[in-house]
Amino acid sequence: MKKNLLSLALLMFVGYLSTAQEVEFEEFDLDNGLHVILHQDNSAPIISAGFMVDAGGKDLGGNNNPERTGFAHFYEHLLASGPTKNIEKGTWRKIRAARGGNGNATTSLDRTFYYQTFPSNNLELALWMDSERLLHPIVDQDAVDTQNEVVKEEKRLRYDNSAYGQILFAINENLFTKHPYKNKNIGEMEHLDAATLKEFQDYFKKWYVPSNMVYVLAGDFDTDEAKKMIKEYFSAIPKGDKPVRNFPKESPITKTRKAKFYDSNIQLPAIVAAYRTPPQIERDNYVLTMISSYLSAGKSSVLYKKMVDQQKQALAVQAVNLSQVDGGIYALFALPLGDVTLKNLLAEMDEEIVKLQTELISERDYQKLQNQFENQFVNSNSSIQGIASSLVTNYLLYGDTNLINTQIDIYRSITREDIQSVAKKYLNPNQRVEIEYLPKNDSND
């Protein structure tokens, strides 16, 4: 009876999630091609507004010059804080803070996202500020020089002088040999230094066109009023042509690749096993995300419990599925404890991968995974900013805005057999790069 009651409660909970979390939204296009998504929620006096550009670290400057990396990240800094024709240098954040707002911008290899949150009585201010940086950005030599120094300082702090800060660089440059995913998202500093002012200006003209962006507004507003303001502030952006990409295809990895990478900021070595994964819109990618949670999400996960808690072989262990538009990365990572070798750490992780490939996970572990993803789904839509981010990401990178409501159904549909099948398909030693991430000293300079 007790078991039946628990099962009934779980069914009711899942039923509640499938209805109560429905996110309503409206979409329309301006005449210049800018796609707009609106989500009205008048439950709290707050709005979140922003735009995502279909341009990231994989998109090079200088007419696709391989020695012009980092342009997307450069523009993240430039447009996140001005200046513009009507907003003086150094005042962007002051204007926003004075009206109770906050904001930020982020860049991945696939996209650049700018967002701001304000009390809802500042709707027009938010729209005007966003239109300013798209219509009237100041991209002169002073702005370029200023942001170059900002980017260099970020690279020094986050990557060059941070322990294990370059581990994703090591993975990308060894896993990808043709596709620009092999490049650093932050770019090479000598590339930015060598770029001309015209190259920076041309990059903006090429990628920051309405047909290559999507605007999102979520929160407390009147829909008719918001539409009117959006048309007023963004219709003047020149239409332009949507850029066309033609990236080279990677050859499949059919034999284990081995590499070494040296980091002067570490004392302990690490082992990484990295695999290529399918484009993020494919169902198999969702299964890989579930596998990574099974292996290393929390202290009760398989790898943590085995290698850190029980066997005390590792200081840390992690499995990560990094989704990307053109194909992503699945990586296993571990730090040794004591005299444990990197070879032994890799063997222990491989043992759990083989179990996934040859045995079905237990029903209990499967239900635990489902509960984790139900919880993540709820949390991702628990704030206006979270909803805005999900809407714009789903439209631009997945081609389906309504994934904000249906993505959880994909995870619910994944079976134990799917987990076994996908592990067999993608996570084999002959399909990976094994990277020894090692301390750098005089002997290996």
From TrEMBL:
PANTHER family xrefs: NARDILYSIN (PTHR43690), PROTEIN YHJJ (PTHR43690:SF17)
Keywords, in A-Z order: Hydrolase, Metalloprotease, Protease, Signal, Zinc
SUPFAM superfamilies assigned: LuxS/MPP-like metallohydrolase
One Pfam family from the record: Peptidase_M16
Protease recorded as keyword: yes
Domain Peptidase M16 N-terminal, first and last residues per copy: 36-155
Signal peptide stretch: 1-20
Transmembrane segments: none
Similarity comment: Belongs to the peptidase M16 family.
Name of this protein: Insulinase family protein
Residue stretches making up the Peptidase M16 C-terminal domain: 195-372
Domain of life: Bacteria
